[in-house]
Amino acid sequence: MKVLHFYKTYLPDSYGGAQQVIFEICEGTRRYGVDSEVLALSPHRTCSKNISSHRAHFVRRAAKLASTDLSMSAIGRFRELAAEADIVHYHFPWPLMDVAHFLARHGKPSVVTYHSDIVRQRLLYPLYKPLMHRFLSRVNVIVATSPAYVRTSPVLQLYRDKLRVVPIGIGGPDLDEPDPALLAYWRARVGGGFFLFVGVARHYKSLNVLLEAVRGTELPVVIAGAGSDKPYAKRQRIGSQFGNVIYTDAVSEADKAALLHLCRAVVLPSALRSEAFGIVLLEGAMHSKPLICCELGTGTTYVNVDGVTGLAVPPGDAVALRDAMRRLNADPEQARRYGRNARKRYLELFTAQRMASAYAGLYAEAVGAFARSRRACAA
Asked: What local confidence, expressed as pLDDT, does residue 231 receive?
């Protein structure tokens, strides 16, 4: 079976939760006989390249409007690649994708992974809403990444008849030890027992709340990542104001593993529903670390069960976040129990193999149902 994934950006041009999910699905479903390709836009060039064991195609981005990547030439390329696929897998939201679906007229069964509601573009949302609902009503299957998001998304509530839940998964049951040299490097640079944030510093990550929570405290924090919300000048000011906060640039997977090994807990202060899942929480759970996040009605507290795998606090509440961090800092044994529970929950629900198996089954189901529908229409 051949599957075409379609999303606005992909590795290595852009790193984020949706891109990581696409990568894990492409790699993981190979063992089930699925041959995956990806089509995305690139700020640099039009080209095709191998990404691990699957093929990625890029069309140069022509413009960017209201956080939406645009390229009309991508629609023609999408039509060509969709014609060779057995199923098209969309990753929502991206308005150009909706347009391409109708203009390409590919006639293939379609799956949508619904990564997030539209949260930030509230002024433009009423204009996009009719197209969005037309698109979602026409696709064959919509996949939510957690039961919590199904319960709290007003959009998903309208499509329960075609809705499935497939939790995001990463890695596997075996956990490699961090590279000793990298471990020594990071231990010398940042120490140990700190609270770790990893990710692109987008607006909804609410790093300002994390900084307010640790201002004037003894709580050590490492913030690893990049993003427009964290320019160099801002890092310099923070470095002079917060002796307990260390900023790093974006880190490699190997560096991240070392930091996860050394930290006391993973903290995700995101305060908006744009944080639909929080893959960094999975990374912490995979490494047996306790978790701290906000209760958003999304996948964050599906991964991190309050009082079981860590602590959940009200969004935007710096005082509550500080109290949660202090609780874990003051009770290492409780932190270790949360970490063990987090690892257990990860193994039960959130491995990449489990996600890949679910998607392979869903693809087979969608293709079979589509073929039966075609035969019924022809009869």
From this structure: 43
Structure tokens at 73: 């030439």
Helix locations, the chain, DSSP H = 17-28, 73-84, 95-104, 125-138, 147-152, 180-190, 207-214, 232-241, 253-262, 279-286, 300-303, 318-330, 332-349, 352-378
What secondary structure does DSSP assign to 159-217, as a single string?
GGGGEEE----BS-S--PPPPHHHHHHHHHHH-SS-EEEES---GGG-HHHHHHHHTTS
For the chain, percent of residues with pLDDT exceeding 70: 96
Which residues have a Cβ under 8 Å from the Cβ of 21 and sit 6 or more positions away? Answer: 91, 113, 115, 145, 168, 279, 355
The one-letter code for the residue type at 18 is A
Amino acid at 88: V
Domain that holds residue 357: 2-170+352-378
This prediction has a pTM of 0.92
Split into its structural domains, the chain has a count of 2
Please report, for the domain that includes residue 258, its CATH number: 3.40.50.2000
Pairwise CA distance, residues 129 & 133, whole Å: 6
